[in-house]
Design goal:
- There is one protein chain.
- It is globular, with a radius of gyration of 22 Å.
- It is an alpha/beta fold.
- The strands form 3 sheets. A 6-stranded antiparallel beta sheet has the order 2-1-4-5-6-7, covered by helices on one side. A 5-stranded parallel beta sheet has the order 8-12-13-3-14, sandwiched between helices. A 3-stranded antiparallel beta sheet has the order 9-10-11.
- Strand 1 and strand 2 form a beta hairpin.
- Helix content is 44%, strand content 23%.
- It is built from 11 helices and 14 strands.
Length: 359
Amino acid sequence: MILKKLSLINYKNFESFSFDFDQKINCFVGHNGVGKTNILDAIYHLSFGKSYFNPVTSQNINHGADFFVVDGLYEKLDREEKIIVSAKRGQKKVIKRNGKSYDTFSEHIGFLPLVIISPADRDLITEGSSMRRKFIDGVISQSDTTYLSHLLKYTQIISQRNSLLKYFAANSTFDATTLGIYNEQMDEYGTAIHHKRNDFLTTFIPIFLERYKAISAGKENVSLRYQSKLSETPLLNLLEDSIQKDRVLQYTSVGIHKDDLAFEIDGHPIKKFGSQGQQKSFLIALKLAQFDFIKKRNNVNPILLLDDIFDKLDEKRVEHIIKLVDDKNFGQLFISDTHADRTENVVKKISQSYKIIKL
C-alpha cells in the first residue's frame, strides 16, 4: 500500500499545496514552523479521520478559512483508492472513500493501516494511564473491528452508568436493579476487551523486546507489563464491591477503563530512571512492534511516519533504526527533519528509492 498523491486546502498552515510521493521514502526537510509535521498529520488524518496532535477539528482549519480538505490518492492491492477528509466550521467532519461517505468513522479504521513515531509519543511515558490504554486500543482496533465495536459500546455504557450515579446523588435515591443492568452490560463487553488485550500483549511483548534489543544493541533490559484488576477478579464482582464507593464518587471507579501498562528499564519505571535517549528508544521499539503486529494481522505494510526521528538520539541508535527500516518488509516511509544534509546522508545508506521535499 502506498500514498501516491496528497492535496491540502486550508489545512493548518497550508492554504493550497499538493505533493507527489516516492513509493518508498519521502523526506520533508526545512526549518521549524514550516509545516513538516502538519503534512505528516494530514497523512495520519486520512487513515484515522482525525489529527494525531490536535483532536479539535476546528483548530485544524487554516486561520481565516471556513473549511479544510485533505485529499489522498492511494494504491492498495493493485487498486487506486481516493480518500477525502473534509470539515466546515460548525459542521460534522466528512470522510469519503472513492466519492462515497462512510456511515460511521469506525468503518474506515484499519483500511489504511498507519504507524506514527513522534516526539509527542513521550506522553505515553510521562502522562496518565489513559494515554497507554489509547495506544493498546489503537493498535488492536486497526486489525479487529469487533474489538473497536466493543470498546465503543463499553464507553457508552460507562457514560450512562455515570449519569445514573449522578442522578442517584442529586435525587437522594438508589435503584439497584437499573444499576445491575449496566453492570451486566459492562461485564459482557469489558471482559471481552480484557481478554483481547491479554491476547494482544502475549503476542506483542516479545516483538517489542526484540525491537528494543536491536535498537539498543542488547545493552539494556526493558519490560512491558499489563496491569488490570480483571486479571485477578471478574469485572462483575469488582463492580458490585465498589457500589458504595461509586455512589460517593458519582462515577465508575473500576473496569477496563482503569487498566495500565508498566514501562520499566532494569526493573525500574523508565519515566524516572531512563535517560531521554533510552525513553525515545523505548517508544520507537513500541511503535516498530506496532508496525510488525499490524502488518501480520492485516497482511499489508502500514505506512510509517517518522516525525523528528533524529531528535535526542545518538548516531549509534539512529544507525540501528535506519538498518531496521532498510528492509523489504517495510513499505512506504515518511520522514521529517530540520537538517536536509543529515537526512539525505542517512537515507543514502538505505538501498531504497527516496525523495527529498524541501519546505
